C-alpha cells in the first residue's frame, strides 16, 4: 500500500482535474519507465467502471512529445445488466471481452479490509472481432495484474495478496470465500451464454490447467461439479440438459450432416446436439457427457425398429445404405457384433416383409429379370432396392444363396 503525503503542490494544477506528482527516485531508469507507461495494459480499464479513457503524454526535453491512450467502450448485453460487451483500445488495437460481474456479500472480516464485508467478482471472456471466442491465456487481477494462472478467461477479485504482490494469500478466509464463489459466477456466465450466440461456442473457456499446487488448484474440479449437474448443454431435442445425462454421438454413427442415424423422441432427449464443435469432445467429456458405444447404438437401433417400425421402413434409401455401412464397420471391428446385428429386422424382402438375416435363407434378386423360386425351396428374395447396395449384402453377414 502506498500512502500519499500531503504537501504544497509544486506544479500548476489543471482546473477541474485531480493532479498528482510522483517524484522519481535517483535510481529510476527513465527510458524503461517511459516504455512501461507507453505499454500500459488496457485491460486495467475493465475493472474501473467510472474510468473510460486514459490519455498519456510524455514530454522530454529536446524531443517530440509521445502520446498514447487507453479507451473503453461498453455495450450492454440484451439479457442482463450484469453482462456487458467491453471493447478496449490501446492506440488503434481493439480488445473485446464479454464481462460478467456479481456482487459478493457477507465476506469474513479481513484486517486489511476494515469495515468491509462486500466485494465483487468479475469474469471477462475474450472474443474476436466477429464475436466468437478468442482462446488465449489471461491473467488474474486484484485491480492490478497478479500473474497468469493459465485460465482462458480474465478473473478480477479483491484478493488479499502476499507482501510481494506476486501471489494470493491462500491462508486468508476472505480469499477462500471469494474462491468458493467463483464457480457460481462461472455458472452464471454460462447461463447467460446459453441465451444467445455463445450457446454452442463457450466450451473452450472451461479451465483445463495441468495439475498444479496453487491457490486455484480446486477451482476446475468445482466448476465441473456444478456444471455437470446443471442444465447447460443442448440435446438434439433442443432442451438444455445436465451434461451427465447426455450422450455424444460420434461421426461414425451419424450421417453426413452429423445427425445421429437413430434419432427418436427417446434418443433425441439424451443425445447432445451436434451444433457443438467436434473439437470440443474432450470438454464435453470433462463435463460428464459419455460417448455412444456400439453396443448402446445397436440397442437404440433395435428399439427404433420395434417402437417405430413405419418410421424405420420409410427412411430414404441413402439412410438405409449409411446404416448398413455403419453396421458393417462395427462387425469389422469386432465379430462379437455379428450375432446381434443378424437378429435385427433390417432386411427388406420382395414380398414387403422386413426380416432378420439369421431367421431366413436369403437370396439376392437377379439384376436382369425377376427370379422364379420353385415350390419347396426354403429361400426368400431380398427386395430389388438392395441390388446396387453391396453393403447390404455385407451387413447381413450370412452366407447368401
What does this structure look like?
24% of the residues are buried. The chain has nine helices and 16 strands. It has helices spanning 30-38, 173-193, 219-228, 281-286, 294-307, 309-313, 317-333, 338-342, 390-396; strands spanning 53-58, 66-76, 83-90, 93-104, 119-127, 138-142, 144-151, 154-157, 233-234, 240-241, 247-248, 290-291, 345-348, 354-356, 362-363, 380-381. Residues 390-401 have low confidence and may be disordered. The protein is elongated, with a radius of gyration of 32 Å. It is an alpha+beta fold. The chain has three domains: 41-228, no CATH class; 231-292, no CATH class; 316-401, no CATH class. The strands form five sheets. It has an eight-stranded mixed beta sheet with strand order 1-2-3-4-5-8-6-7. The chain has a two-stranded antiparallel sheet with strand order 9-10. Strands 11-12 form a two-stranded parallel sheet. Helix 2 (173-193) packs across helix 3 (219-228) and helix 7 (317-333) crosses helix 9.
Beta fraction: 15-25%
Distance between the termini: 90 Å
Gyration radius over CA: 32 Å
Structural class: alpha+beta
Rounded average pLDDT = 86
pLDDT < 50 stretches:
390-401
Oligomer: single chain
Q: Please give the number of β-strands.
A: 16
Helix content: 10-25%
Order of helices and strands: HEEEEEEEEHHEEEHEHHHHEEEEH
Question: What's the arrangement of strands in the largest beta sheet?
Answer: 1-2-3-4-5-8-6-7
The overall number of domains is: 3
Q: Main β-sheet, in a few words?
A: 8 strands, mixed
Judging from the principal axes of the Cα atoms, what is the shape?
A: elongated
Amino acid at each position: 500500500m502506498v500512502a500519499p503525503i500531503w504537501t504544497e503542490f509544486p506544479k500548476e494544477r489543471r482546473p477541474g482535474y485531480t493532479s498528482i506528482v510522483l517524484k522519481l527516485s535517483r535510481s529510476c531508469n527513465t527510458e524503461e519507465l517511459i516504455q512501461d507507461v507507453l505499454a500500459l495494459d488496457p485491460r486495467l480499464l475493465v475493472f474501473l467502471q467510472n474510468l473510460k479513457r486514459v490519455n498519456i503524454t510524455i514530454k522530454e526535453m529536446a524531443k517530440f512529445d509521445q502520446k498514447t491512450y487507453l479507451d473503453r467502450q461498453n455495450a450492454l448485453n440484451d439479457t442482463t445488466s450484469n453482462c456487458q460487451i467491453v471493447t478496449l483500445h490501446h492506440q488503434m488495437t481493439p480488445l473485446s471481452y464479454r464481462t460478467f460481474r456479481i456482487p459478493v456479500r457477507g465476506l469474513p472480516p479481513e484486517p486489511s479490509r476494515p469495515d468491509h464485508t462486500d466485494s465483487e467478482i468479475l469474469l471477462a471472456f475474450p472474443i474476436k472481432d466477429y464475436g466468437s471466442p478468442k482462446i488465449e491465456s489471461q491473467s488474474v487481477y486484484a485491480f492490478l495484474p497478479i500473474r497468469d494462472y493459465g485460465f482462458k478467461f480474465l478473473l478480477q477479485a479483491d484478493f488479499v495478496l502476499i507482501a510481494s504482490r506476486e501471489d494470493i494469500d491462500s491462508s486468508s478466509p476472505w480469499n477462500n470465500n471469494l474462491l468458493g464463489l467463483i464457480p457460481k459466477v462461472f455458472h452464471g456466465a454460462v447461463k447467460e451464454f446459453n441465451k444467445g450466440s455463445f450457446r454452442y461456442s463457450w466450451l473452450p473457456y472451461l479451465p483445463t490447467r495441468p495439475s498444479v499446487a496453487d491457490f486455484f488448484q480446486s477451482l476446475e474440479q468445482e466448476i465441473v461439479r456444478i456444471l455437470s449437474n446443471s442444465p447447460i448443454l443442448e440435446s438434439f431435442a433442443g432442451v438444455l440438459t445436465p451434461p451427465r445425462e447426455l450422450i455424444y454421438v460420434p461421426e461414425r454413427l451419424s450421417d453426413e450432416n452429423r445427425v445421429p442415424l437413430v434419432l427418436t423422441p427417446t434418443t433425441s432427449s439424451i443425445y447432445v446436439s451436434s451444433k457443438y464443435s467436434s473439437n470440443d469432445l474432450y470438454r464435453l467429456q470433462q463435463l460428464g457427457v459419455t460417448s455412444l458405444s456400439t453396443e448402446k447404438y445397436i440397442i437404440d437401433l433395435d428399439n427404433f425398429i420395434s417402437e417405430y417400425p413405419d418410421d424405420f421402413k420409410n427412411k430414404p434409401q441413402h439412410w438405409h445404405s449409411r446404416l448398413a455401412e455403419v453396421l458393417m464397420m462395427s462387425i469389422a471391428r469386432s465379430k462379437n457384433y455379428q450375432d446381434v446385428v443378424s437378429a435385427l429386422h433390417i432386411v427388406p424382402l420382395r414380398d414387403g416383409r422386413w426380416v432378420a438375416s439369421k431367421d431366413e435363407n436369403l437370396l439376392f434378386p437377379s439384376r436382369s429379370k425377376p427370379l422364379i423360386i420353385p415350390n419347396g425351396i426354403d429361400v426368400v428374395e431380398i427386395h430389388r432396392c438392395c441390388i446396387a447396395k453391396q453393403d447390404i449384402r455385407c451387413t447381413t453377414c450370412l452366407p447368401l444363396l
